[in-house]
Amino acid sequence: MAYSTLTNYKLLTLLILVLSGCDSNEALSLSKKSIIYCSEGAPESFNPQTESSGTTIDATSNQLYNRLIEFDPTDNSIIPAIAKSWHVTRDGKMITFYLRKDIQFHQTSYFNPTRALNADDVLFSFNRMFDSSHDYHLISGGKYPFFQNAQLVNLIESIEKINEHTVRFQLTHSDSSFLANIGGDSAVILSKEYADELIELNAMQEIDMLPIGTGPFKFKQYSSGAFIRYEPHSDYWRGKSELKQLVFDITPRDTGRLTKLLAGECDVIAYPIAHKKIEQHPNLTLESVTSFNVGYFGFNTSKPPFNNPLVRKALSYAINKQAILETVYTGQAEIANGLIPTSSWAYDSTITSQEYSIAKAQELLAQAGYSNGFVMDLWAMPVQRAYNPDAVTMAKLIQADLLKIGIEVNVVSGYEWSTFLRKISDGEHQSVLLGWSADHPDPDNFFSTLLSCSSAITGSNRTFWCNKEFDQLIQKALQTNNINKRKVYYSKALKLINEEVPLIPIAHSKRYQARANNINGTLLRAIGGIDFNGVTKN
Amino acid sequence: MLIFTLRRFNLFIFTMLLLTILSFSLSFLFPGEQLINLTGQIDASPEQLAILADEYQQQSGLLSQYFSYLNHLFHGEMGYSMTSNLPIATEVLNRLPATIELTCVALLVAMFFGLPVGFCAAIYHRKLPDNLILTIAMVGYSIPVFWLGLLAILVFSIQLGWLPSAGQISLLFEIEHVTGLQLIDILLSDSPYKWQAFQDATRHLILPVIVVALAPATIFMRLARSAMLEVLDTHYIKAANAKGLTFSQIIYRHAMRNAVIKVIRDVGLQFANLVTIAMVTEVIFSWPGIGRWLIESIYQRDYTAIQGGLIVLSTFIFIVHIIIDFVYAALNPLAREPRNGKR
């Protein structure tokens, strides 16, 4: 018996050697024509209309869908997409889009389109969000964060179909950020035919989990929290992708992503660490792009002691931003003087960051009646984002900073990302480290989404700060097309934020990505999510 | 044999009873509402909760609550995961096969390596090979598994790039979930890339299996060594020697079989140890098994998942233990029937 044991063992070794030793040609073709992207988290939905987090946008927007108009990746100007051209009347209140006629929807195991995209699909996609009596409005919760925050509900008076391939938007007033909003990552066009079919099948909730779009890739499989499998859309109007598969390997740990990249299990990884190591590696490339984003330290202004502006202001003096920048961002970011990055036209150089002064902080705390300090919770986001690559470390630095003025900080971490966001939206936190990546280049995207009263209701204003004066300022800025006037309003709004401190902007970072050298094409965008259209492997 | 079987069955029932009592009492010990801990329905409305309370006989005494819990368990209802909202039974069925695959392959590898090496050490008792093997066994047993796992990834995945560091198979291959045992599923599938998938899955298996198998293999080495020494010291070996049998005849025909039997008795015990090592290894190698899921559930404070995972994992260990007991009994007449001789 033991003799045969030994023989078996030899056979096994031989088998393993044979198995790992050889490669067949047919097999090579699969991995040679497929890309595995190691992403940092699981998408909450497959429809970016219903969810505006960066992870969802990255996984869905540019891969599965198209918008009426899109942004040029190089200079952020508006370029045609589903709409081949558009016309804005002189008063800015009527915008007509002329649609392409050759756009096909995805053909998948769960849907067979019988017609090309037309005006009905555009109407369906927008009405779902605007019309609260629409059949699909309340499916998936009825929250459309980006559109509600951008106030498009009040802005758009009506959308009408002029003919099969012409759609007209009638606005209540002229709004300078309208086109930028329509080109944003969340303004995707869905298929009305698919939606009608789901109504017949009585499976309406599937519209956001089994997606149908017009984008370069179509949905194949999603294993919750593990991976997403996409296949190329063979009738894509910009031309079929050369890839055989696009797989999102969901790898929340940054060390895990780095290991997979080095071991060749991923072709591209999101938010790499150890930049030097990647730069030195002969087969890898590190890329970066300065993003429209901000990482901030936000207070829940509905809870004491942070309902007192003096306390918030005191804390803003006590945070050593320079130390955070060097430790957390390893110098790959710039200090945020305000909410808006320096590259935006709305940036006001006269507004400077709060100086670092413990004396001033203590003085303000004493004024607020907290001279003996207090104990507070600080929620640190559990995933890495460009705007905050390591929230837990940042929380520890802030903990040390605040201890100097007698405030004891409990760092709350360890929740899974979707649980974390849900609890934050419910207002369970006292303060939080979060951030925001802009959907489009218009500065309004920062102000309205992060701090307006309406987004305090939809949940993207995590500070629950609602200031009438601030809301009026950002409304006025939208009513004019005159950039100089808008600048004045935004400048006032920035000053108001500096006085009231609903949040402390910490840094505007660069977004990094690492990839193997055999991956070609532009993936990273300054605005919005990544884009695998036109990316090839050789 | 019947008595032997009945005795094992009896043991199984009592152990399961204790286990379920432990798991049931966990739902009281965890923070939060007991019913919610038990069912995992965190988003349930008051009406739904009332129905659940009725189902689990919350109004009756503790004993009937426990029996209704048992009743649910027998029907495969272990509640819902608090994080994913999927039934625990589904979650477990999706993940348990991966753990079975990893632990069973590792157990076989540990035995195939451990036993012959241990016999070798016994044959060269107190000579250089023996000392060398004992030293290696000591070192192998003392290495912490998480360190070994990371080291293996660092050397074989990152530096050399020979073997993958995470998962069961490259995500590019679409293998239909039939048995859940990856290698068998690949052979059953009709994918055009079957052969490549099989290679890839094997490559993914190598590092975690070696890491899991190392410590048990060293234990088997020592067990095999002392078992063989014991056997070589018996009268029947001396008699065989006196009859003029060659050394290899004695070892292969008489000593080895008897020594193996002694080792097999301890394999069941070592299996529990092996599963614990596998849980840590699953985390390191992102192996989609139940151990990793259970550790994640602890992080997420998913109490329902912790209870369900605990029961399933201990049942699995226990079943393997009993199977090994039967193998032992089949090989050793002394164990199954007292009349076959004195113990």
Short précis:
Chain A is of the alpha+beta class and 538 residues long. In chain A, 34% of the residues lie in helices and 21% in strands.
Strand composition percent of chain A: 15-25%
Order of helices and strands of chain B: HHHHHHHHHHHHHH
What is the overall number of helices of chain B?
Answer: 14
What's the N-to-C terminus distance of chain B?
A: 15 Å
What structural class do helix, strand and pairing data of chain A support?
Answer: alpha+beta
In the CATH hierarchy, the architecture of one domain in chain A is Roll
Q: Proportion of β residues of chain B?
A: under 5%
CATH superfamily of the largest domain in chain B: MetI-like
Taken together, the total number of domains of chain B comes to 2
The percentage helix of chain B is over 70%
Structural class of chain B: mainly alpha
Quick one: CATH superfamily of one domain in chain A? Dipeptide-binding Protein, Domain 3
Q: Give the assembly state of these chains.
A: heterodimer
Give the C-level CATH assignment of the largest domain in chain B. Mainly Alpha
Number of strands of chain B: 0
Approximately how much helix is present in the residues of chain A?
A: 25-40%
- Termini separation of chain A comes to 51 Å
Indicate the CATH topology of one domain in chain A.
Answer: Dipeptide-binding Protein, domain 3
Structure characterization notes:
The complex is a heterodimer of chains A (538) and B (343). Chain A contains 19 helices and 20 strands. Chain A is α+β, with helices and mostly antiparallel strands and 538 residues long. Chain A has a domain at 293-511: Dipeptide-binding Protein, Domain 3 (Dipeptide-binding Protein, domain 3, Roll). In chain A, strands 1, 8, 9, 10, 11, 12, 13, 14, 15, 16, 17 and 18 form a 12-stranded mixed beta sheet that branches. In chain A, strands 4-5-7-6 form a 4-stranded antiparallel beta sheet. Chain A has a two-stranded antiparallel sheet with strand order 2-3. Chain B has 343 residues and is an all-alpha fold. Chain B has 2 domains: 23-77, no CATH class; 88-336, MetI-like (MetI-like fold). The longest helix of chain B has 39 residues, at 194-232. Chain B starts with a helix and ends in a 7-residue tail after the last helix. The model of chain B has no long low-confidence stretch (mean pLDDT 88). At the A-B interface, helix 1, helix 2, strand 10 and helix 9 of A face helix 5, helix 7, helix 9 and helix 11 of B.
